[in-house]
Amino acid sequence: MIKISKTQKNDSILILSAVLLLILSVGAIFLFSGNKRDNDVSRSSTPKIIGEANLTVDFGDGERRAFEGSIIENETLIDVLNQAARAGEFSYKLNGKTDLASIGELADDGKKSWHWYLNGEKINKRPSEITVKPGSNILIKYE
């Protein structure tokens, strides 16, 4: 049988306690610094609402659907259409990446097509290139 002196026993307990304290301290540092970092990322990635905008879809036959909602920084006309499509439960298709080809059953037929207006003025740029500002009035018209 091996005999351990009280001093050796106390030294072993002291070393073991120091190692456990070190492990717990490192774990606590990672735990709390990780949560802070995660919270900072989630706060910074949360979109900032900058105001509201209106979207009206004019189907060209007297039927119109109007939507109003919050907009976030750097939101484009396509983003607004996407929100309205989800809320209004309608589908749309893009021609290429950003040109509007159809809403529901109404598609570009050579005679009529979808046109975008922003604050009463027809736009000639791609809708994905135009950032919406608070108070914007957007009209998509089949004409």
Which terms would index this structure?
single chain; 143 residues; alpha+beta; Ferric Hydroxamate Uptake Protein, Chain A, domain 1; 2 helices
| Strand order, sheet with most strands | 2-1-8-6-7
Counting DSSP E segments of at least 2 residues, the number of strands comes to 8
What form results from the Cα inertia axes? rod-shaped
Which H/E pattern describes the elements? HEEHEEEEEE
What structural category characterises the helix and strand content? alpha+beta
Share of residues in helices? 25-40%
> Quick one: biggest sheet?
5 strands, mixed
Instruction: Tell me the distance between the termini.
Output: 100 Å
Number of helices: 2
CATH architecture of the largest domain: Beta Complex
Domain module tally: 2
Alpha carbon gyration radius: 30 Å
Work out the strand percent. 25-35%
CATH topology grouping of the largest domain: Ferric Hydroxamate Uptake Protein, Chain A, domain 1
Residue ranges: pLDDT <50 for 5 or more in a row? none
Mean pLDDT: 84
The CATH class label of the largest domain is: Mainly Beta
Write the layout of secondary structure elements.
Layout (H helix, E strand, L loop, with lengths): L5 H40 L3 E10 L5 E9 L4 H12 L3 E4 L3 E5 L2 E2 L6 E5 L2 E2 L14 E6 L1
Parallel strand pairs: 1-8
Antiparallel strand pairs: 1-2, 3-4, 4-5, 6-7, 6-8
